[in-house]
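Hello forum,

I keep getting stuck at the same step: I have a sequence, I want structure tokens, and every attempt I make locally crashes halfway through. Rather than fight my setup again tonight, could one of you with a working pipeline run this one for me? It's a single chain of 207 residues.
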Amino acid sequence: MTNAAIPRPTPPHPHSRAEDAQGIAFGAVMSAFGAFLLGSAGLITGQLAGLSLLIAQATGFGFGPVYLVLSLPFYGFGYRRFGAGFLRRTIAAVLLMVGVSMALPSLVGFRALHPGAAAVLAGAISGAGLLALFRHRTSLGGIGSVAMDLQDRLGIKAGWVQMGFDTVLFAGAFLVLPWQRVLWSALGAAVLNLVIAINHRGDRYIA
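Reply #2:
Ran it on my machine without issues. Output:
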């Protein structure tokens, strides 16, 4: 044994603006494509995206505009917890996601799309998109910001808040969608959550 100190790993360099931009663009585009797959198969998912898909299917409005309107009340929670930089990146990601989701129907079509395939693919694709956004200190706004705020102020676990919202959402979906579609939607949401649970750790990310 020697007395030489074990060298510590060099801390990673922060992301550049260009790296943030490409990461946010990738995350927003993948999230839009995941929502497009679900909408094309008549499915939903959890959180604000799921509520937006459900409203879009029930009313005939596009997913993108519905999501944009529903997301507006949530930006204050994100700003209060994470600051102005997070808010700017989140707004940029949401606007890009909405824009891409509005363009996709005229660019992509499916001759056949099994709901099971749509659910699994959308869960994986959306999970990858969200991981990219998290890595670059960004989100798509929504229920997560409220959950973290309630956890800070009232001590209510964020996970319970999100789970409660999704429970109500999927229960309401049975009133609007055929039960088979709701079950396929639950599969897709499970895949997405599994991707996030396995791969998301804040200490792995560069600031």
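The first helix runs from residue 17 to 40. If your local run keeps crashing, start a new thread with the error log.
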